[in-house]
Amino acid sequence: MERRNFFRITSLAGGGLLLGAYLPFSCKSNDDGVVDWEPNFFIRIGSDNTITFICSQSELGQGTSTGLAMVAADELGVSMDKLKLEFGPGSSERYGYLQDTGGSNGLRMVWQSLREAMATTRGILVQAAAQKWNVTPQECYCKDGHIHRRGLDEKLPFGAVLDIASTLQAPREIQLKEPSEFKYIGKPIKGVKTKWATTGTKPYSINIKLPDMVYAAIERCPVWGGELVSFDGSKAMEIPGVIDVMEVEPTELQQEDYRGGVRPGVAILATNTWAAFEGKKALEIQWEMGKNGLKSNEDIRKELEADYKTKSEVVADLYDAKKLFPRGRKYVSSSYDSPFQVNACMEPLNATAYHQGHKLEIWAGTQAPKLTRERVAELTGLPEAAIKVNNQPSGGGFGRRFFCDYVEEAVILSEKLRKPVKVTWTREDTFLTSKYHPLCKDYWEAALDTNNFPISIRYRGSIGRPGAYRCYPYSIPFMSHGYLKYKEGRLLPRASWRSVFAHPWGLGMECFIDELAHNAGGDPIQFRLDVLRNAEVQEQIQWPWVGSDLYPKKLYNTLEQVREKSSWGRLDGGIIFQGVSAICYNGSYCSMVADISVQDGKIKVHKFTAVIDCGLAINPSQVKAQIEGSIMWGLTALLKQPITVKEGVVQESNYDSYDLLRMQEAPDVEVYVVESQDTPSGTGEVGVPGVAPAVLNALFAATGKRIRQLPVTEELLMV
Amino acid sequence: MINGKRHSVEAPDAMPLLWALRDLLDLNGTKYGCGKGLCGACTVHVNGEAVRSCVTPISSLEDKEITTIEGADGNTLLKTVQQAWYDEDVPQCGYCQSGQIMNAAAFLSNNQNPDDDAINTAMNGNLCRCGTYVRVRKAIRNAAKKINGEQALEN
What is the least distance, in Å, from the CA of A24 to any CA of chain B? Predict the structure, then answer.
């Protein structure tokens, strides 16, 4: 256990927030005569013994709601199958800065606060029962939603002591459970969300239907930075079900680019979604495309290449890399290209807003319910207290739903209509006029000694301060420059995309390290192990919320294990070739080996073996699921058509032109989870950045060819 | 007939079944994914066959038997597939999974002993952005085992 980390997270996440929530709450009676007790913002206990876990974090499919429910169930002493699930509204009053879900932080941000809150709740319940029985609290304990008396066959359901519990002060001392007492944590448990999803009953925001609700669809300016000149909605108005056509004024993209960036558009308002979609097709609109209307993705790449040739400062320097770099006997360099990508969540973006003048309610699957509420307050001038953001589970987020433009649109329309408005994006909208993972260009150079061993690495590319992200684990001295800049702003607005900048970073680092290993005549895994063995722990100083310090030893362990589990170097001379990668991201560590073959000019990926260290794995089934999914995500980016831009317009409009990896292409996957009692870290993204390099390194083993750009096309393989 | 109950809707002939189910009949288990029959999220059964409801106009469905994910309780095969999905903890975000389950059930009704190649081919048109394919494959194998087991018992 890394004590220092543990305490740091505790002091960040616990403290004032929880104590503030522990003023003795009085009970509230609901319509059925059931009395509810809500001792904090994570749990509600009813006098009918209904126990509801209120999940502060967003459920995007990554399973955070299940993981946190398991923590709550264990610490409180309730059966998982009795625990109901609700999502807390966006609220800094309730959850401080812990709530918004991004950077694989769902469990990490809140698990300690949640444990303390549940241990406190348990303490109050025990006190209440002790009072009722007229015994000491030490004679009582909680299990299966009841308070039991030690050594006696006597118990009371939680619901039976609420009258007393609601009058008690929280105990000063709380006792967290020991790992040996966990019934759920560490086991592959299924939660409410699995039940919902298999029965088609998950309450996505796209299902929202309110009395008097208007269904809206918006035709947006196809070029980022363009403007609306004029529109004619008369043909659209002829479509049955269309009620009205109106302009949507854009909102300015803010410095913190999660906010704003609604494109100029024309909205169709209708009595059902389909009519709104049909109406959209019948609109006649004139746009002024602006400067970006002349540009393609290749122009943007050239702007980055040109910026590389300008002088720039070194912004991070590890192990004296800057001093050592000029001492090389020989230099090698490689550049890596990754294109624009889109999140393509299966649930198209959508949001419902109801602006009633003095108050406003929102229903949306969002990763950032707190930020959305702040932004909507800023946009409408209403106080935050008048705004309620109901956070629904999402049909995929992957970073895109951290950006609130799609909620802003619903707010803008509802403000005009003073009715509930649901804006649903067509699938085409989500490809053509969304926000995107940026096109990246990354340059890696190394100074080698007389034995071709690297003595210093220089990086200049898409990440500004790799030191701050702590994504460079090796002991080879390393320096980086400020990030490469475009000449005239972005061609497409930016969104986070599963693993964000770790993806181009991982592509460059893990392909380049592989090249360096080859140059030095070493086995790719042994070489990495050698340059990890003595690497120093890197302290996280800049952004404590993105994770803990970097422990090269943990990455070392995952690499050693994956060497064993993948039968590295022990496959007997067939058509299968192997490649490796090792990634650390946001406190987690993942090494993977890809087994591939190349036949008829095509790559076939047969199998992935991965080993992940994510601290204490609350739910190993979901940890494995995240790595399985990340592999499919990474393979889509490696093998499939990306987002391309011609004259400012995105060319891929649906799943036919932006294909995802399919069942026939999905390799077998084996995931091993390192046993650990360290603070849990994230698992949603660490599996992504290593996928492309593992396959590309295997491709080198198979063909002797280094491919340094995504996607890998048949043409590239033929050259 | 939808899930054994007769329904009538007032809507233009060209309205796709998907939107009639979702917006008019409040059967939200069937999902809008692409609107062009490309992703499979909207898959339902029409007379037992897997059909993409986003490109199926309601006018073509008079007197047809439609089954959606909400009808699983009245359909042993569908229920078995659904249970296998739960047992393998297949869904992540879950949005495509109604379509995956409906497609898998239609496939298993025609092929009760599929190998992986047959499973891959049958499911190739159902996209999943979360990447649950490995578990989908496993769930179908397990559902097939169960179905065969049940039939063996009946015989």
Answer: 37
Q: Model confidence at B155, in pLDDT bands (50, 70, 90)?
A: low
| pLDDT value for A26 | 59
Of the candidates A594, A595, A590, the one whose C-alpha atom is nearest the C-alpha of residue A627 is A590
Residues 244-303 of A with CB under 8 A from B: 272-274, 277
- Nearest CA-CA partner of A604 in A717, A707, A524, A710: A717
- Give the pLDDT mean for A103-110: 86
In the chain, the amino acid numbered A59 is: E
Contact B100, B33 (CB under 8 A): no
Which of these, A186, A82, A105, lies nearest to A619 by C-alpha position?
A186
Q: How far apart are CA B98 and CA B75, in angstroms?
A: 15
A453 pLDDT tier (thresholds 50, 70, 90): very high
Chain B residue numbers touching A188 (CB-CB < 8 A): 89
- Alpha carbon distances (Å) from A582 to A511, A554, A675: 10, 11, 18
Model confidence at A21, pLDDT cuts 50, 70, 90, reads very low
Band of residue A11 on the pLDDT scale cut at 50, 70, 90: very low
User: A-chain residues within 8 Å CB-CB of B28?
Assistant: 200, 204, 207
Strands A602-613 and A668-673: parallel
d(CA B75, CA B102): 11
Q: Is the peptide bond before A711 cis (omega within 30 degrees of 0)?
A: yes
Query: For chain A, what is the mean pLDDT?
Result: 93
Strand order of the sheet with strand A265-270?
A: A242-248, A265-270, A214-220, A420-424, A350-355, A360-364, A387-391
Comparing CB atoms, the residue among B34, B83, B92 nearest residue A654 is: B34
Q: How far is the CA of A108 from the CAs of A630, A679, A688, in angstroms?
A: 19, 8, 19
Cβ A190–B23 below 8 Å, yes or no? no
CB-CB under 8 Å, B136 with A347: no
- In angstroms, the separation between the Cα of residue B31 and the nearest Cα of chain A is 8
Which pair of tokens denotes residue B84?
A: 């296998």
Task: Look at residues A179, A581, A600, A208 and name the one whose alpha carbon lies nearest to residue A391.
Answer: A208
What would you report as the CA-atom Rg of chain B, rounded to the nearest whole angstrom?
A: 15
pLDDT digits (tens, 9 = 90+) for B14-69: 999 999 999 999 999 999 999 999 999 999 999 999 999 999 999 999 999 999 99
Spatial separation of the C-alpha atoms in residues A316 and A197, rounded to whole Å: 45
pTM for the predicted model, two decimal places? 0.95
**Cα radius of gyration (chain A):** 27
Residue A114, judged by CB atoms within 10 A of its CB (0-12, 13-18, 19+), counts as: buried
Please spell the DSSP secondary structure of A382-448, one letter per residue.
--GGGEEEEE---S--TTGGGS-HHHHHHHHHHHHH-SEEEEE--HHHHHHSS-BBPPEEEEEEEEE
pLDDT-based confidence at residue A6 (cuts at 50, 70, 90): very low
DSSP A467: H
Under 8 Å between Cβ of A473 and A550: yes
Per-residue tokens: A653: 């409009």
Q: In chain B, what residues touch A206 (CB-CB under 8 Å)?
A: 31-32
State the smallest CA–CA distance between residue A440 and chain B in angstroms. 22
ipTM above 0.90?
A: yes
